[in-house]
Write a structure and sequence with these properties.
The structure is a homodimer of 343-residue chains. In chain A, 44% of the residues lie in helices and 15% in strands. Chain A has 343 residues and is an alpha/beta fold. Chain A folds into three domains: 7-50, 434 Repressor (Amino-terminal Domain) (Orthogonal Bundle); 64-162 and 297-328, Response regulator (Rossmann fold); 165-295 and 332-338, Rossmann fold (3-Layer(aba) Sandwich), CATH 3.40.50.2300. Chain A has a six-stranded parallel β-sheet with strand order 2-1-3-4-5-11, with helices on both faces. A four-stranded parallel β-sheet of chain A has the order 7-6-8-9, with helices on both faces. In chain A, α1 (7-14) packs across α2 (18-25), α1 packs across α3 (33-45) and α2 packs across α3. Chains A and B meet through α4, α5, β2, α6 and α11 of A and α4, α5, β2, α6 and α11 of B. Chain A binds a DNA duplex (16 and 16 nucleotides) through α2 and α4.
DNA sequence: TTGTACGCGTTATCAG
DNA sequence: CTGATAACGCGTACAA
């Protein structure tokens, strides 16, 4: 590696001790202003930069935290990571970022990698396969705090940052009801995810509140990917079982459904209205523009990072951690895809 | 931070020296197989993990490299980063990731941050404002190799990983010509970027080859964002200066143009055909699906990372580096947005 | 085959 | 106010 100047070099150049140099550089009170000045000038001259590795070894801290997200394909998680970085850079922490690719095996491998790197804390949005409670608990009990965000572990005792999925699903469904769509159904996400259950419950309760009947056909287990939305919609079309409106688990599923509609020359929202979730940039660009729930991604990242930093501090001070679930405010953006033109 | 077992602890437990433990763990030949076995068992028992910080200090290597990208909003750069990680994880390197937000000032700040963290090498896709040649050269001359990818510095002497923007722009334009569109124009990117010049040149040369006239209206400086494509298209509509086909600098610009067309009830491709660049997932989902040039993002990341690793090795061995520009194969995906129905 | 001792760059403690 | 020294965890030359 490139040769960097050290405090030793400065000490040698000025014929003083490394201790004094260290203190001068740290701007401490117990050092003669004139030598302090000399040291700083010499440091400048030699283009001295403190070696972060040495500092970390000395402080017995790696100043590193790990982030696991399911994927990178949409801009959703990257935006959250932006928020995380915004806080962590400030705090002098490095970030290890990895994606589980929706697989629990990958997630496990990544978590082990993080342990090997001695991360001081971990931020997780879990994979769609399984809620790996045992592993999370093991890590937390070993003294490495975990904060979950967006896709949180249902039962692990830890802090979590989410939006109120139930409420937003409720609102989205009510929005369709207020628009007087008759047959409203829900394309649900992967069963293992807590957000799937919450959005499903929100849908059900909104339907019940307005005395809509829920049949076995009202909720269709679909998944998370565009293709899954596409095939689910296609199946309904083939069965001539077309609803008036669909509240979809997320935007990609809604896009997939939309594609299937177009392929069969069925118009949206005239024949089938659509609502998505977790607004992506795309929502505004498809035709018709998609109604969706916008999540505060950047803020979610910031919040999770801040909570984790707190917990790391508390852990270092051997204090107890209070687990909290923070619910951020989301927003239903109504667009053309869910407006009933007949009313 | 959490208390980890060290080789000292193992040594103490077995009443041997740390040196022996160190050697045993490194699986070296000059240590008694039986003690080696003992050490490994004890290490297992104490859940020993080598402290990466200590190793790095000892090896005088930070095993860290930095990546700067302009943005995170589309999935383009995240996918490249995935490829980078794929290589670097394997090689035991950590990644510092940052986004310049298209601003040269930010980029400079990030590069300084990387220097402070003593990265061993840097991967850069430059911002749209300015090609900061002086800074890049300063860093490279100081002994930190830089490899550029996708958006490369025009004149900095360094290795670069790109696609053949000229050729693909040429192909895209020819495709429009072969489809017998009459009035074909180009929405160009930010003037400071090399890829802007290359794509522009590809457009021009394809037009010339087929004896199409290039007027002052044939190329419109547009930019990089969806909004810019939107307003450029809107202006043409207001001026009643609508072309038959537009080769756009990238997908977002094409989406913006498409949006403007729809707002004026102008159909695509019937009245105006569109071609994008740097295919995004969205390209397949908009209506009509957008013709675009797909770039091998993952491979681009892998390639750039591999080249950087090589250069880091060469630097460490005090050997000379040969700068190479690697051109990866891209692909024009023809979709409905650029098919002339009249032929 | 194993142990001693030192160095990596930094900070903290304790003398002076 | 300043200097000498130990320590952080690991690797390695050298000695035994």
């Amino acid at each position: 590696m490139k040769k960097y100047a050290t405090i030793k070099d400065i000490a040698k150049a000025l014929n003083i001790s490394v201790a004094t140099v260290s203190r001068a550089l740290a701007d401490r009170w117990d050092v003669n202003p004139s030598t302090k000045k000399l040291v700083k000038e010499e440091a400048e001259r030699q283009n001295y930069k403190p070696n972060p590795i040495a500092t970390r070894l000395q402080n017995k801290r790696t100043k590193t935290i790990g982030v696991v997200v399911p994927e990178f394909k949409s801009s959703f998680f990257p935006n959250i990571i932006l928020g995380i970085q915004n806080i962590l850079d400030e705090a002098g922490f490095q970030l290890l970022i990895a994606q589980s690719n929706e697989s629990m095996a990958n997630e496990e491998k990544i978590l082990k990698l993080f342990e090997g790197n001695m991360v001081e804390g971990i931020l997780v949005s879990i994979n769609q396969e399984q809620d790996n409670i045992n592993l999370y608990n093991k890590i937390i009990n070993s003294g490495i705090p975990i904060v979950f965000f967006n896709r949180v572990s249902a039962t692990t005792l830890a802090s979590k940052v989410v939006i109120d999925n139930y409420k937003m699903a409720f609102f989205a469904t009510e929005h369709l009801i207020y628009n007087k769509f008759e047959k409203i159904i829900h394309f649900a996400g992967p069963a293992s995810l807590k957000i799937t259950q919450e959005r499903k419950k929100g849908f059900e309760d909104a339907m019940k509140k307005h005395h809509r009947v829920l049949t076995s056909n009202s909720i269709i287990d679909t998944g998370i990917m565009s293709e899954q939305g596409h095939s689910a919609m296609k199946k309904l079309i083939e069965e001539s079982n077309i609803p008036d409106a669909i509240f979809c688990f997320n935007d990609p599923v809604a896009f997939g459904a939309l594609k299937a509609l177009k392929e069969s020359n069925i118009t949206c929202p005239d024949t089938v209205a659509l609502v998505g979730f977790s607004e992506t940039e795309m929502a505004q660009l498809v035709e018709p523009p998609l109604t969706s729930v916008e999540q505060p991604t950047f803020k979610m990242g910031e919040t999770a990072a801040n909570i984790l930093l707190e917990q790391i501090e508390l852990t270092n001070e051997q204090q107890n951690i209070n687990f909290e679930t923070t619910s951020l405010t989301a927003h239903l953006h109504v667009r053309k895809s869910s407006i009933n033109k007949k009313i």
